[in-house]
Amino acid sequence: MSRADDFERQGFLVLPDFVPAASCDALKARAEALVEGFQPETVSIFTTHEQTRTSDEYFLSSGDQIRFFFEEGAFRPDGSLRQAKALSLNKIGHALHDLDPLFSEFSRTPALAALSAELGLRQPLLLQSMYIFKQPHIGGEVNSHQDSTFLYTDPPTCLGFWFALEDATLENGCLWALPGGHRVGLKKRFVRAPGGGTAFRVLDATPVPEEGFVPLEVKKGTLVVLHGLLPHKSGPNTSPKSRHAYSVHLIDGAASYPLDNWLHRSAQMPPRGF
Ligand code: FE2
Fold first, then answer.
1. What is the pTM of this model?
2. Ligand 1 centroid, distance to 67 Cα (angstroms)
3. Ligand 1 geometric centre to CA of 258 (Å)
């Protein structure tokens, strides 16, 4: 059975040894350097009374930037970090793949271009990327969702490439996926609210099944491919080991990209292909 058949049937693929360990290590080192250069003082305002508005703005304008997002509970009430900056971050997003040469190289390989074509993208555009830390002990869980909720096109074309940069296990919060769940239809969209901020717009109120998810425990270097409509989630990291991952999400340039999507790219930096 071909990769495309498998993907069509279950809505995800697990491809071990897709990336050499050395490339995973290089990406981790690069993320570490970016964190090193990041001055949290610039976002300490998060802990003031303007928290919501300011963090919304920092997030909403991050579509074509490299920005740093903290774990919930990273700060003390006085605004100082509870632990070292490098152990307090939830993720970096959302244009690493365009702004950082090493992330670009990692995200734009012939193997990935071939895979995206095989899985049906005609005009692949690398829209969004995230470096996910899933920190030891404090890495939070991610609730069940469909990536097309956040990266919507009409019709839905989102395709996710999720790279394990470290072994992902039940203990450190591996992915869980619902086999065949990509056929349930898109449940909601995450949009810019007319009055500012963001909102979920419900498209179909029938709930996604809560049963039937399978854990994807994978080794470092594994690529997990996720259909944009596939419900998936990840548990909290209850272990002393981190679970670093990098994800890049593609859309098909042949589909339309609504302006009320939360993620905006400036006209000077439209999403590019491979
Ligand atoms: Fe996701």
1. 0.94
2. 18
3. 20
